[in-house]
Amino acid sequence: MIEELKNTFESFNKKISKKDTIAKIRSENFEKFAQLGFPNRKLEDWKFSDFNRIISNKFKSININLEQKNEFKFNNYIKDFEHNKIVFLNGFYDNHSFNYENEEKIIFDNLNKGPAYEPQGNNSLNLLNNAFFTDGLLLYVKKGYQCKKPLVIYNVFNTKNDNNFFNQKIIINVEENSKLDLIIYSINLNSVPIFLNTSNFFLVEKYGLLKLFCINDLNNNDLNYNLNQVNVTENGIFENFILSCSSSFFKNDIQCILKENHSSGFINGAILAQDNQHHEIKTNINHIGQNTKSYQKIKSVLNKNSKAIFQGKVHVDSNAQKTDGYQLSKAIILDQDSEFDSKPELEIYADDVKCTHGSTSGSLDEDAIFYLMSRGLSRFKAKKLLIKGFLVDAIETITNDEIKKYYLNKLENKINEFS
Fold first, then answer.
1. Long-range contacts of 383-387 (CB under 8 A, 24+ apart)
2. Which helix (H) or strand (E) holds 110?
3. What average pLDDT score do residues 297-324 get?
4. pLDDT tens column, 290-307
5. Biggest CA pair distance of the chain
6. Quick one: which H or E segment has residue 380?
């Protein structure tokens, strides 16, 4: 597949790169990707997810067609709450509206003309994104501006067989004393399987607040790798919630640096997987400043030969005194063929810290099921009620009440589809 990608990349780079310097940097990224290849179990960060095998089994070829026109319109917007919106169709910017905001306080642009990103690190999928990304979002919330309504990025796909590989970037800067609630909503309207590879960067400046939410309505043959790199400065707060309940493979990779004093990072999520789905949440929170705080809670429910993974690392620098770090992952496994893997890590170099982590997995409590059945529920309904109660605990960490209610409704619908 990499040899095929090499041929695809040459023609792609000629079409997409308007400057020789951009073409050169894209080529350097692709060359480094080609040396590393798709990640496999030999890499510690991928020890539970052999992506090279997964993509080889799912895709005979991966293709990008820059000539394909978006011959469809999308208007199935969230109706549960008022929001601003940005719409991408088949990987390219289509339209936006900031009807609830002062647009003078928001700097917005798309990335279809670049820029280029120098190859860094050994994350081969990020290098692949740097080589192939076609479009994305650059957004600044100016100093002192508190966005009145959430922003929803609709990432919508309705594509043909010759266009199944998408790479996008989102770059967002929440400036000093500013606030943004952001939902990234990926939707595949067609049955054509897609590989969506996204790489995002977020900066939360002094006293800034970014609440980031991830929702996928992808199909059961789709693959999605999402990398979020987050820097939080003095007294800044980053909140992230992930609902992972669609696509064949989904890995949300979060790298959060609490760079300065009194910065905070909160990462919570719920995984609801069945029918051979393979979902992973991987976090790396790096405490650099003093009096920093992190909190993580991940809940998973698995059925029908599905697999969920949580890899969570908390690193505390030698100067990061007064660190408070909490991490917990729990899973309910409903059948003998499903699998839950957890790898919690604490790496602490300071002596005045409070850090805890824990991980548990098991089946539903038969006593609780019996109790509910004795109150008139069928076994099927009793199990669904217990699953909902288990996952709602993670959703309760959401601090935006409208978005929390939306997630609760979405979870209810997903559980009703669960069998």
1. 383/334, 384/415, 384/416, 384/418, 387/301, 387/332, 387/415, 387/418
2. strand 106-110
3. 96
4. 999 999 999 999 999 999
5. 72
6. helix 379-395
- Take residue 162 and report the two structure tokens written for it: 């010759």
Token output for 201: 């960067």
**Cα 54 to chain center, whole Å?**
19
The residue among 211, 223, 210 whose CA lies nearest residue 166 is 223
Q: Is 20 helix (H, G, I), strand (E, B) or coil?
A: helix
DSSP code, position 392: H
111, 133 Cβ separation under 8 angstroms: yes
For range 99-125, the mean pLDDT: 91
Cα angle: 54, vertex 55, 57; to 5 degrees: 70
Q: Are strands 264-273 and 237-244 parallel, antiparallel or unpaired?
A: parallel
DSSP sequence for 44-79: GGGTT--HHHHHHHH-S-----TT------------
Please list, in sequence order, all residues whose beta carbon lies within 8 angstroms of the beta carbon of residue 373, skipping any fewer than 6 positions away: 379, 382
DSSP assignment letter at 103: G
Residues 6+ apart with CB under 8 A from 11: none
User: How does DSSP classify residue 332?
Assistant: E
H/E stretch holding 252 reads strand 249-258
- Please check whether residue 269 is in contact with residue 298, taking contact to mean a CB–CB distance below 8 angstroms: yes
**C-alpha to C-alpha distance for 153 and 103, rounded to whole angstroms:** 17
- Give the C-alpha separation, 126 to 167, whole Å: 10
Which residue in 134, 115, 128, 120 sits closest to 64, CA to CA? 134
- Is the CB of residue 280 less than 8 Å from the CB of residue 309? yes
Give all strands (DSSP E) within 274-400, no chain letters. Answer: 278-287, 293-302, 307-316, 323-333, 339-348, 353-362
| C-beta of residue 106 within 8 angstroms of C-beta of residue 140 | yes
Helix or strand holding residue 226 (H, E): strand 223-232
Cβ atoms of 300 and 264 closer than 8 Å: no
Q: State the pLDDT at residue 45.
A: 95
Give 125's contacts (C-beta < 8 A, 6+ positions apart): 38, 39, 51, 197, 199, 225, 227
Structure tokens at 393: 């605990």
Token pair of 82 as six digits: 């008022």
Judged against a pLDDT cut of 70, whether residue 419 lies above it is answered with no
What percentage of the chain reaches a pLDDT higher than 90?
A: 87
The Cα–Cα gap between 209 and 205 comes to 8
Q: Are 162 and 190 spatial neighbours (Cβ–Cβ below 8 Å)?
A: no
